[in-house]
Design brief:
3-stranded antiparallel beta sheet, 19 strands, 3 helices
Length: 312
């Protein structure tokens, strides 16, 4: 066989092998071992029974002028990042500094996935007096409260307006660097000792407003309750205190809180504090109750408090 014939034989063979694993259909591209037609809803359709997709492994600092939506797995901390057009968003990962996204909405609205990996069902509970339907437990809680001081039912403590990025965990790390955007890009609890005592530099009053509100941490079909909705629930309690809060259909607990200057839990076992979506000036409203009284009050947004989601 001449060199020219061998060359064309080599080209033909490689072209044949390529067509087996690479196909194009209606402007969609598929790469697989069977030549299967790519799904028409995808631009690129990768499939395999024994191989995965290997993302780029480059630290964000090494990427000059990243494009919106660009992703990379950073070797320095083993976290996955996506560029928001303004900054890099930490999407989580296996590194110690990677936030885990708790209580995010999965493919089915019937489940919530907390940081521990345990699947928590979204179970409804309705107050017959108000007609409102709620989740039966606090976000981050593994069970319905067996008592007003049931530790297993305390759940997480959120700073007002933030999503589930890891900051809500009671063992979260802290930082004094305020966020310039609605998503800080890390799972740190942000301390804010200076006025207006908000974790965000340049406040945003539109966070947590309604079911489509920015950073709504509740599962599909749920949202943060308003001051009016919490107050209506409070007025149905048999007593306006912690005993009445727990004996209500919602089984509320005295889970405590984090302040705007420290992650050390305060009021655990003696105070229940639940955020509302309602704002007033530079601060936001919350439901509070102790062994002696219950009320709706305003407080700094850098505080960490419980969340109970209401159904839309």
């Amino acid at each position: 066989m001449t060199k020219l014939k061998r060359f064309f034989h080599f080209v033909f063979l490689n072209f044949y092998l390529l067509t087996i694993s690479f196909s194009s259909f209606s402007q969609s591209v598929g790469i697989n071992a069977t030549g299967a037609t790519p799904d028409p809803s995808s631009l690129l359709d990768l499939s395999s029974t024994n191989k995965g997709f290997l993302i780029t492994r480059v630290d964000t600092a090494s990427i000059v002028t990243p494009a919106f939506g660009l992703m990379t797995l950073a070797p320095s901390d083993s976290c996955l990042y996506m560029y928001s057009g303004i900054n890099w968003i930490n999407m989580g990962g296996v590194g110690a500094n990677c936030p885990c996204f708790c209580n995010t909405t999965p493919s089915t609205p019937a489940l919530v996935f907390p940081c521990g990996g345990t699947v928590i069902p979204v179970i409804e509970v309705t107050n017959a007096l108000t007609g409102k339907t709620w989740m039966d437990r606090n976000l981050g809680s593994s069970q319905v409260a067996a008592s007003v001081t049931d530790v297993a039912a305390y759940g997480d403590l959120y700073q007002w307006g933030r999503c589930s990025d890891g900051h809500e965990k009671r063992t979260s790390t802290t930082t004094t660097t305020l966020s310039l955007t609605d998503t800080p890009g890390n799972g740190n609890y942000i301390l804010a000792p200076a006025t207006p005592f908000d974790w965000r530099s340049g406040q945003n009053a539109n966070l947590w407003q309604g079911i489509s509100g920015i950073n709504n941490p509740c599962p599909t079909g749920y949202r943060i309750p308003t001051e009016t909705e919490w107050n209506a629930e409070r007025l149905t309690w048999t007593t306006n205190n912690a005993a009445g809060a727990w004996s209500s259909p919602l089984k509320l607990t005295m889970a405590g809180y984090h302040t705007h200057t420290a992650l050390i839990p305060g009021g655990v076992g003696s105070s229940g504090r639940y955020w509302t979506s309602t704002i007033t000036g530079t601060i936001s409203k919350y439901l509070s109750f102790t062994a002696t009284a219950g009320s709706i009050s305003p407080l700094y947004r850098a505080y960490g408090m419980s969340i109970r989601c209401i159904k839309e």
